[in-house]
Amino acid sequence: MSNCLHLAIPAGDLNMAIKFYCDVLGCKTGNNEEGCWVDINFWGNELTLHQSEERLPKILHDVDMGAVLVPHFGIHLPEGEFQALKERIEAAGLTYLDKPYRRFVDSKYEQETFFIEDPNGNVLEMKTMVSPKVLFEVD
Asked: Could you give the CA distance from residue 40 to residue 58 in angstroms, rounded to a whole number?
């Protein structure tokens, strides 16, 4: 787990957040301080959920596909895992903030993406890239 990203966020009700991240998204819990925080294995990254009353403020930023909420975070998944995640989200009856769609079609950056919210209103963008190796290439 070298070069693992660590992100700590306000989670609202910790038990609700754990159910969302583990039961819906399929993540696993790690270290924790009962009632205060819990580490989530977010596809090999350390996401720390903190029991909280506050929510992060959100603003809209215009990008090629329209307006997106910032801040947001997420993960790039292989196609099969991405499709399985969409099925779990739909089975859980969650509402997409932005439904799955393709962007950068017919380019080396082509991807499918969608946006959802966790129970505390934290915004997640989940993606699958047609050619994941080109992610950080510069033209």
From this structure: 23
